[in-house]
Specification:
Largest sheet: 4 strands, antiparallel
Strand content: 15-25%
Strand order of the largest sheet: 2-3-1-4
Order of helices and strands: HHHEHEEHHEH
Distance between the termini: 10 Å
Number of helices: 7
Number of strands: 4
Helix content: 40-55%
Length: 203
């Protein structure tokens, strides 16, 4: 394969990736789109404060990607309604069922998890209750519309029961990425790029 052909293939793959990762020229959510979720009962599993916060966040849509930071404490025993899923014992077991289903829905919409970790210890906590969480997860969403569309999907409506069965407490905070640097990743990528450049130059 010639270098020209190889370059064209790489450019095409990169353009496909960009089209999946970003959605340009998309308008912000409309009031009708936001109302549709409410009419379907999409807010029913939230508290009154949660519903109001979620709606305000959607109404402020700018069409850009964002990162949802999730602080989570799982139940020792999964809590389902009317004895559903008796084989699912712990909150973490229920969370695995939720994650298995929701990750596919995220990827369909140019969204994906970027970080997941278990807390090592409590170190600095200036107020009571701020150290409740045991796990931290960060999910990158392509847009608020993609989040809304996922929440409306039949798959999500079916798997959301596992999320609430798994969680004793949770806080979800949308953020905008300012800086995300991991030398272990960037240096490795740089070395791979240099290696590929040398191989291509020598061929």
């Amino acid at each position: 394969m010639s270098i020209t052909s190889f370059t064209i293939i790489l450019v095409v793959i990169y353009l496909i990736f960009l089209n999946w990762n970003y959605r340009w020229l998309k308008k912000p959510l409309t009031k009708a789109e936001i109302d549709r979720l409410s009419a379907k009962g999409g807010y029913d599993d939230m508290s009154a404060v949660g519903k109001a916060n979620f709606r305000r966040f959607m109404e402020a849509d700018d069409g850009k990607p964002f990162y949802m930071v999730n602080l989570m404490k799982y139940r020792e025993k999964a809590l389902y309604h009317e004895g559903e899923f008796p084989d699912v014992k712990t909150g973490e077991d229920a969370a695995k069922l939720y994650n298995r289903a929701v990750i596919k829905e995220l990827i369909k919409r140019g969204s994906y998890p970027v970080f997941y970790s278990r807390k090592m210890a409590n170190l600095i906590s200036d107020s009571d209750g701020t150290d409740f969480f045991e796990h931290v997860g960060i999910v990158r969403y392509r847009s608020r519309r993609d989040l809304l569309n996922m929440v409306e999907s039949p798959v999500y409506e079916e798997c959301i029961k596992h999320k609430w069965a798994s969680l004793e407490k949770t806080v979800a905070v949308p953020t905008r990425r300012v800086m995300m640097i991991d030398p272990a990743v960037t240096v490795t990528l740089a070395m791979v790029i240099i290696w590929l450049a040398v191989i291509l130059a020598a061929s």
